Fold each of these.
Amino acid sequence: MTRILITGVSGLLGINFAQEILNQHDVVAVDRGKLVNAPFKILKSDLLDSGAVDSALDNAQPEWVVNCAALADLDSCEDNPDLARRLNTDLPAQFSKACRSRGISFVHISTDAVFDGLLNAFYTEEDAPNPLSVYARTKLDGEQAVFAENPSAIVARVNFFGWSLTGRRSLAEFFIHNLTNNKSMSGFTDVKFCPMLVNDTARILIKMLQKNMSGLYHVVGPQAMSKYQFGVEIARRFGLKEGQISPKSINTSSLIARRSNNLCLSINKLCTDLDDVPPEFSTGLNEFYTQFEQGYPQKIRSYAQ
């Protein structure tokens, strides 16, 4: 079994990544104390503490590291730019350098938000980013810092949905929670993205590591849609009232951080180098619903009880 160290394990990607691979790999995860019943080894640590990165690597002795740790709430990043920089830029750089010196394969998770959305097409890895928010700027700086320290690293720009520890971390959960409780809500018609089931994200990242890939990749779903359409698709699959979702422009929202209208990323490079194609959105949505039917959300949430 390959030993994999996962940072940010209590986040949406981290917890689903660990769950996805725990039967095939030796999982060690870093957590500050949210998880108490996890079926994998936990290193309790605040990675922003001095020496914490080296300590985690020395204790875990991993062959691969997947860095999911981040300050991912866009408005929180606007309020806490120093913390955003420490988590989204400085920490990835530390891990990248430490992994290179130890011969450990390193994957850093970035975001589709690095683009300004002005391109009327799918962004490729060759297109120049232009971040609009503190979150996006610190994540782009994190990408550059990772490669500066370790050119052999993988940086994956992602956008995913799935079940979280809190039940409120993903856009899909937002729609389900509100519709289940007969609460009306809005969906942006002028923000397009390429959502992928988080479990598929995890599977693809493992395949990339197994193939010893390196460099910058867009790891998102093959289908673009608006946030409004996404909500409608969720409602239909779960038998909820799609009419309670009203179409809305992001320009009329009260969000603090600036958002890009076009988050559509090309996955041609990923498909070519991986020699594989990510599942269609409908396939991921069906699995997401099956997880719901089989009690998967309750299972992962039990790790934090």
Amino acid sequence: MGQRTSDKALEPALLKKVPLFGEFSENDRTAVAALMVSRRYPKHAVLVYEGDAGDALFIVVKGNVAVTRVSNDGKETILTILREGDFFGEMGVLDGSPRSATIKAIGEVEAAMLPRKDFLELLAKSPNMSLSLVLALSARLRETNQAIQAAAYQDIRTRLAALLLHLSGQFGETVEGGIRLTLRLTNQEMANMIGTTRETANRMLNRFWDEKLIDMQTGHIVIADAAKLKTLVG
């Protein structure tokens, strides 16, 4: 288990943000919240390590986390980023296998844990929850397949354009001049998402800036020309 601050009870109202419990009544959410413990983690903390026991489902209550794996040569890859309302750890909970990835806090994060036994009992009682889980897993599998295909056939420029468009869909807000990414990633984190070095990612971001595809004056990336990025992706 990763670094954390003290545990506390989960507020039932927070489960309203979680699609997995979207069809639950207020009373049901209160009952589920009573089974869960909420923990706060500082920036860059590890919530779980690859290989840990899959003994609980995690819900991201506040903040964002990166799902990462390290290759045999020690290179870290960020598989995806999860935001408020997302969950992780479901595979280990379902089949009892060890964690298949390491989960890291991008900024300060609050996450809640639901023990495996309680989660499996809820699935057995709630067809809607089971359906939500299947849909979420299908979407993740599709996203993973797309990422694998992109890594095999796209160059770094195309991969970066695709990443920026993906992030704008998840974390974008409309501002004057384009779409601002509310999530701040380091160049190393972005490099880890597209399979390149920090120096290459930095160089390509600056090239996009020079080409007026993005703007980075404020510290947040602003997508200034989404149409051109889509053209690059094809």
Amino acid sequence: MGKINAAITAVGGYIPEDVLSNKDLEKIVDTNDEWIFSRTGIKERRILKDPTKATSDMAAEAVKEILKKKNLDPAEIDLIIVATVTPDMPFPSTGNLVAHKVGAVNAFSFDISAACSGFLYALVTGQRFIESGAYKKVIIVGADKMSSIIDYSDRTTCIIFGDGAGAVLLEGTNEEVGIVDSILKSDGSGKDLLHIKSGGSLRPASEETVKNKEHYVFQDGRHVFKFAVTNMADVSHDIMVRNNLSADDITWLVPHQANLRIISATAERMNLPMEKVMINIEKYGNTTAGTLPLCLWDWENQLKKGDNIVLAAFGGGFTWGAVYLKWAY
């Protein structure tokens, strides 16, 4: 048997029904629609308002869509990896909960925490399980309920984030399709610029930490923007160079949906026209680990077998990376 390639063979997604528009935010914080859109490209985002629902519920819906599309028995799934920074609880893992909710009784599961780059980290991890030949069907999920960790009195962060989940099915193939190459990076020195200060083992939850709002996302927007523009653009360019790809060879860039200006800078570095860039930030905002699979979900009917696709992301930590793949269906 020849080399096994790990290929995406199905995509699923889920977004909550409730919409939080820029006009809605004008009533909550000192901001306005024009200011938000001109700086981020965001018009609205989806919010999971049901207090009984969490990240695992959105993730499970995305997985169920894949099972339905592929007419799969959940028991056929070997592994579920969930990329998230908003787990339902510290443990068990959200992956465990998703597997239970969809009936994947034969799958083992775990979470990956790499912020907005989480889906890429999980995708490459799943790739290795498929390429080993040990597993046949692996589901990779990117899901975050960002509304659960956002301070809606902080106009620097509440305008950016939304809730949502996307998932892909990875299967092995001997065809020349699937994941070809990846570059993954991290730099922990960025922790002071983008983080949640408390709730971990360093600063466990206390009356003081709650009072000081230390369980919400903090972001030094200006410095994070500079790091993101440079690193996401560079790693996308680097993966093209490493695989001898020109702009003409690339069918689609699938960028993390953090900020339209970061997306534009990445496309420019790759010498790609914006017509080749998947953008849905105006509808969903930044869903963190959910942005990349939700783009694939939105664009699925425009993708053709053999399309050259570059996925790129940058997130807190810092984490960043790019994946080059050939679409399999």
